[in-house]
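Sequence in, structure out. Go.
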Amino acid sequence: MKNLLSLSPKQIVKEIEYQKDSIISKVLLQSERLNLTLFAVAEGQEFSPHTTTREAIVHILEGDGEFMLGDIWHKFSSGDYFYMPEKLLHAIKAKSNFKFLLYLY
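Output:
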């Protein structure tokens, strides 16, 4: 098991920094039941359509953009969250720098 989570309150958005023209990720927790990964996505970056083998929750921490869920694009901004069932086709377009937490369980 990997666990980088703090035992005291911290600002999670400060745990990762943006890099120009890049998508950066940091695994915070990895166990049999839950993987928690923090992402920093630079403005203009995209994730091409893909699926996951696990159920997921996405929590947008800052910034905005668009998520394709199935064949529908949805706008998102800071504070938004949503559920993705396993095998759902999805993609991302960053309209600004944005950070999000991905919970895979």
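Check: The two ends are 14 Å apart (CA to CA). The chain has a mean pLDDT of 97.
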